[in-house]
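Need the bound structure for pyridoxal-5'-phosphate, inputs here:
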Amino acid sequence: MTHLFYRSLAKDPINISSAEGIRLTTRDGQTIIDSCGGACVANLGYRHPRIRAAMKETADSVAWVSSATFITDPAEALADHLASLEPRLPRVILQSGGTDAVELALKLAYQWHCERGEPQRVHYISRRQSYHGHSLFTLALSGQYDRREMYKPILPQTTFVSDCNAYRGKLPGESDDAYGTRLAQELEDTIQKLGPDRVAAFLVEPVTGSTAGAMPPVEGYLRKVHEICVRHGVLLIFDEVMSGLGRVGRNFTHEDSGMCPDMVTLGKGLAAGYQPISAIMISDRIHQTIASGSARLVHAQTHMYQAFASRVALEVQRTIVDDGLVAAADRKGQLLRAMLGDALGAHDHVGDIRGMGLFLGVEIVKDRDTKATLSGTDASKFSARIKDVALENGLLTYPAAGTIDGVSGNHVLFAPPFVATDADLGEIVDRFVRSLSQTLSDPGIAALFASQPAADARRPLATTQ
Ligand SMILES: Cc1ncc(COP(=O)(O)O)c(C=O)c1O
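Answer from helper R.:
Posting the output first, comments after.
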C-alpha cells in the first residue's frame, strides 16, 4: 500500500529505478526511451555526468539562505548568465516552478502599473489555447479544459483572444502576414472593449506547447501584437517555461523577431529536471520604476533565489553553451521533423507536422481533407490509448486531447533531450509509427475514427471566462 496520493487514482504510475541519457529503466527492468524530456524538462537527459559532478561539489556549499536578508554567488551568477543571453531583459527573479514564475510575472505587471499611478489596470488577456500553470490565476488564463473546468466557479475572470494557429486559423488563400494582422486586430479590438487604460498585460506562450502541440507563431505576429501592447501601455509577457533556453533551437522564441517582450518566464529546461527552479527575466524600465518607487518587490516565496538550485541550473546552462546544444537542438529538430515527415507525411490520420527546433507536434485527424477530429471524451480515449501502446513499445510519448479549442483534436508532442543522437531520433520515430498504427487498429479506437462524434457536454472557452 502506498501512502502517496497519486495523480491518477485509477492507474498507478510506473516506478522508475534508474535512468541514463534518454533511457529510463523501470523497477521491472523494462527500458523506455524518452521522446519528450518527460514534459519538455529533461533537456540534458538523465544522470548527466557534468551535472552529477556539480551537484556533488555543491553539496558542500550553503544550500539555502533566507532571501529576506541574504543572497548567494550561485544566484548572482545564474542571473548574470541569463541576462547575458538577452541583455534587453537584464533583471532576474528566481522562483521554484513554472507556475510560480508566471504568477509572479502577472503580479509584477500589476505592481508596476500601481507604482505608475494606474491601479485601474486590472484586466489580463491571454490566448485561448495555452497552458500557464496550476495556480488559480494562471489556470484562469489557460485553455486547458480538463485542468480548469472543475475550478471555473472560483477562477478570477480573464479575457481570451485567438491563438495563432496557421494550420487551422488561416482563411483560404490568406497569407501569413494577413493572418497575423487579423489576429493583432482582434487583440486591438479586445483591448478597446475592455478599455485601453484598464488592461494590465497580455500573456502569450509564443510556441504553444502542451495544449496546441508545438504551434509556432506566423512570421510577423509577435511584432504586431508587441506594437499594440506598446501603444496601449499593456505589458507583454512571454511564457517560455516550456519553449525557452534552447528547446526551439534558440534561447528565446522572439530572437530575430525585431521585438522584445517586457518579461519572459522560464522553468522546465532551466535546470533540466535536476532541481526545481524557474525564472522571470524583466526589462530595465519595469525594474527602474519599482526601484525609484516603493523599492521593493511586493511578493515573497520561501525558496526564491535558492542557492543549490541556482548552482545546478547554472551548470545545466553552461553545459548547454559549452556543448553547443542550442544549435544542436535546431539541427536535430530539423532531422526529427524530416524523419516524421518521411514516415507520416502522407498518413491518412496525420493532419500536420509542425514546430520549431526540437519542439515538434504531430496533429492527429480523422480526415486529412476536412481536418475533422475526434472530440471530447473520444479524443481523450485516443490520447490515453496511444500513450499506453507506446509505453508497451518502450517509448514515453506526450499525447494530448483538445488541441483545437480545449475540446476537439489530438496531437503528440515531441521534445527529446538535446543529447539524443541521430540514431535515438530514428528509434523514437520507428517506435512511434508502430505505436500509432497499433493504436489505430485497436477495435475500440478504430470505431471512434469511423463514427460520428458522440454528444459531449464540453464547450470551448468563450471570450470572457
Ligand atoms: C508554458 C507553460 N507555462 C507554465 C507551466 C507551469 O509550470 P509548472 O508545472 O512547473 O508549474 C507549464 C507547465 O507545463 C507550461 O508548459
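Comments: DSSP finds 15 helices and 15 strands in the chain. Residues 39, 97-99, 102, 131-134, 205, 209-210, 239, 241-242, 267 surround pyridoxal-5'-phosphate (CB under 6 Å).
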